[in-house]
Amino acid sequence: MITFVTTFTLKGDDAESFEQLFKEHSEFMAAQPGFLGFRMLKSLTKPGSYVNVGLWADGDAHRAAVSTPEFTSHVRAMSPYVEVTADLYREIASHTPTAD
To answer: CATH 3.30.70.100: does it fit domain 2-85?
Structure first.
């Protein structure tokens, strides 16, 4: 499993439009082979800052999804609203609390 972490920073103050575009994008991504899930987080202290954490079965599945014309179209649609940085990660440690 790999993790794709993307940070989004609003260029202006139109969070509503960006969030709608991201929702449409996430529906597309959820239908891609090898997609395992995601969490989109909005900063509580930095207005206009978001982090998306996506889980993929492997790097090949992720590469296939981001190589589609639909993905490119979504990126173009969101680009007027946000600056983006992204990278692939692999887990080296984790902890899940257990119930008593």
So the answer is: yes
